[in-house]
Write a structure and sequence with these properties.
about 325 residues; alpha/beta; Rossmann fold; 7-stranded parallel β-sheet; about 40% helix; globular; binds nicotinamide-adenine-dinucleotide; binds 2'deoxy-thymidine-5'-diphospho-alpha-D-glucose
Length: about 325
């Protein structure tokens, strides 16, 4: 199989490329990534010489480039490429439309013209909006009710996927996963930000009361689920992916402080995120029942391994945090 992975130099995409090459050595992977601030070829270090892997720098919204790539023959498409950070979407919403909506449409259109056997769109549980404490987890039938420019742009892409399936019979499948954690996550996101700040004895900026709830899954479990959906999912379907590990942000913070032997005094409650979704929880019984997938990594073990990874890979995150990211951090947290 020849597989186009987009956004393969980001957090989940790079973990997925590594997973594919490890588990399906006969597959060929083309990784198309624009290398925005979030894309990093160091996430793929060691793969450069693999005969069945090729990196192409480019934009998923560039129809001419897509034409050339698809013209060389592709069987499957996995679209991770996106602007992925909610806070950045609040700061600059328009920026999210190009990649997340128009880029996805350009990919769908080229995939339709050339014909592929599967188009897998990597979506998010954030398209469902927010849950109260009492509600059960989101199912695939939950209505889309996105609350941030990021989640609205992802929901728009999901609807385009539906339209390409209904109108053109393009074999599209959409997955909606909960919050991922693990190696190579860009340190703007809660878990890597707090681990790396704590290691440097810098404050941990907890938004609002810190009682917001996310449902956490180790990135490897997400990759395993995606591979199963890619090969065995049903056209036109949506699959929720989650590990049933709900935690408040303060609980996450405490796990990190305890493991690193750091003091609670590092916690700073700062101004809340506008439109902050209170709680996400995923009902993944569909993928479990239909495809037999189950999460393999428990939250505690996954977090211990992840914290150890950031301890061992200080050079990787230090380079990011001392680069242009510094300006973003000061802008975002400076007078919060
Ligand atoms: P990320 O920000 O770490 O990586 C995004 C990648 O996309 C980067 O390598 C970037 O360079 C690339 N990219 C951005 N715009 C591009 C463009 N126009 N053309 C080509 N490449 C481009 O994101 P992530 O956390 O790895 O998320 C990957 C996907 O998974 C996203 O679609 C996101 O919506 C979805 N998702 C993420 C999570 C999570 O917890 N991180 C959960 C569910 C779904
Ligand atoms: O649910 C899936 C989504 O998870 C993905 O679609 C997104 O791409 C991904 O970024 C993530 O979105 P969140 O907004 O949930 O993740 P983030 O790490 O930004 O924030 C997690 C929680 O932590 C959220 O309640 C906000 C809070 N937070 C975050 C940061 C960065 C803080 O309290 N302080 C912070 O500094």
């Amino acid at each position: 199989m020849k597989i186009l992975v987009t956004g393969g130099a980001g957090f989940i995409g790079s973990n997925f490329v590594r997973y594919l090459l490890e588990v399906h050595p006969d597959d060929e992977v083309v990784n198309l990534d624009l290398l925005t601030y979030a894309g990093n070829l160091e996430n793929l270090a060691g793969l450069e010489d693999a005969g069945n892997y090729r990196f192409v720098r480019g934009d998923i919204a560039d129809a001419g480039l897509l034409d050339r790539l698809f013209g060389q023959g592709l069987d499957l498409v996995v679209n991770f490429a996106a602007e992925s950070h909610v806070d950045r979407s609040i700061e600059d919403p328009g920026h999210f439309l190009n990649t997340n909506i128009l880029g996805t449409q350009a990919l769908l259109e080229t995939a339709r013209r050339y014909g592929v056997t599967r188009f897998l769109q990597i979506s998010t549980d954030e398209v469902y909006g927010s849950l109260s404490e009492e509600e059960g987890g989101f199912t695939e039938e939950s209505p889309a009710a996105p609350n941030s420019p990021y989640s609205a742009s992802k929901a728009a892409a999901d609807l385009l996927c539906r339209a390409y399936f209904k109108t053109y019979d393009l074999p599209v499948v959409v997955t909606r996963c909960s919050n991922n954690y693990g190696p190579y996550q860009f340190p703007e996101k809660l878990i890597p930000l707090f681990i790396t700040n704590a290691l440097a004895d810098e404050p941990l900026p907890v938004y609002g009361d810190g009682l917001y709830v996310r449902d956490w899954i180790h990135v490897r479990d997400h990759c395993i689920a995606l591979d199963q959906v890619l090969r065995n999912g049903k056209d036109g379907e949506i699959y929720n992916i989650g590990a049933d590990e709900e935690r408040t942000n303060l609980e996450i913070t405490q796990v990190i402080l305890d493991k690193l032997g750091k003091d609670k005094g590092l916690i700073r409650h700062v101004k809340d995120r506008p439109g902050h979704d209170r709680r996400y929880a995923i009902d993944s019984s569909k993928i479990q029942g239909e495809l037999g997938w189950r999460p393999a990594t428990g939250f505690r073990q996954g977090m211990m391994d992840t914290i150890d990874w950031y301890i061992r890979n200080e050079a990787w995150w230090n380079k990011i945090k001392s680069g242009e990211y510094r300006q973003y951090y000061e802008r975002m947290y400076g007078n919060r």
